[in-house]
Amino acid sequence: MTTAKRDTYTPESLLSVAVQVFNERGYDGTSMEHLSKAAGISKSSIYHHVAGKEELLRRAVSRALDGLFAILDERQACEGRAVVRLEYVVRRMVEVLTAELPYVTLLLRVRGNTGTERWALERRREFDHRVAELLKAAAADGDVRGDVEVRLATRLVFGMINSMVEWYRPDGRGMGEQEVADAVARLVFSGLREDR
Amino acid sequence: MTTAKRDTYTPESLLSVAVQVFNERGYDGTSMEHLSKAAGISKSSIYHHVAGKEELLRRAVSRALDGLFAILDERQACEGRAVVRLEYVVRRMVEVLTAELPYVTLLLRVRGNTGTERWALERRREFDHRVAELLKAAAADGDVRGDVEVRLATRLVFGMINSMVEWYRPDGRGMGEQEVADAVARLVFSGLREDR
């Protein structure tokens, strides 16, 4: 039997437990029972904070989406040459991904079975589209190669960045956030090949 | 009630149905009942072909792994300058991924709950390691930039390539296999930035 602990959760700290469980079991595979066990509080205590697991999902993916969309409003993402803005956005995406790792991981695993999931997928597409527009502007400036189609390039760059949720662990022993941001920016903009 | 169809499956065609179900429901979430329904034959007919769902998983991920490892034995992957061999391997990885899409998709989603899954993860690591060795050799030749750590670069390049399972659909309407292989090779080796 689980010893129920006193409910000292805030909506924030409960969310952090829920996201961990969602990432481990998958959102579909998580019941309120699982959440109650992981948090060590009763289901009714959870219902005191949120209407149900879909609200927890909505809050969690919102946190990731808000972090990503906020990048696009930062001054360096709005002013100056498109290719420079694009590089800024790529670096900031790596930073948001590392700072909000479990939330972005959940966002990237969303499948579309519920209204909240479909909404999250729609917002992700919107974000991808905004970045693709920036890439298109950089190509129009002649700063970005014209021989890779914009949508394909965007997908591949997002693929590289998003893969981080599979291997990046902020354990203090591995690579730091800035090292990864530098590496991603170098590879995305200049590639592997040594210029000679 | 499902109308059972006569069992005209070969081990190959049954595998193709099983992989589709594994990818849709997740391996853990798939029961012999699900496989039987999807194939339209009885469970005992399935047992006539295989010992159980883990054997289907082993066959499916083996097909993906065999395809990937075979690349490393091809002449162009073994002879010549490391950076040229590396570019060959990257292009061939894209080709194997598109040709064996459902099998590679399943391989990349394997989590490690069963012996077969742990074995598949181990083989994946071995493949990644072989490609990382090639990258290291190219860096030693001075053909690949030295300011991104080899393991990190390998992860990011694999991230870009592997992301294809999320969006590449061989429906004849979208991008062709060669277009994607060209785009990946260009981005991985030369990056987005236009040289001027």
Automatic annotation (TrEMBL), chains A, B:
It comes from the Bacteria. The keyword Aminoacyl-tRNA synthetase does not apply. One of its GO terms (molecular function) is transcription cis-regulatory region binding. Residues 31-50 bind DNA. Residues 8-68 form the HTH tetR-type domain. Keywords: DNA-binding, Transcription, Transcription regulation. It holds the Pfam family TetR_N. The keyword Cell wall biogenesis/degradation does not apply. PANTHER family: HTH-TYPE TRANSCRIPTIONAL REGULATOR BETI, HTH-TYPE TRANSCRIPTIONAL REGULATOR RUTR. This is TetR family transcriptional regulator. It comes from Streptomyces nodosus.
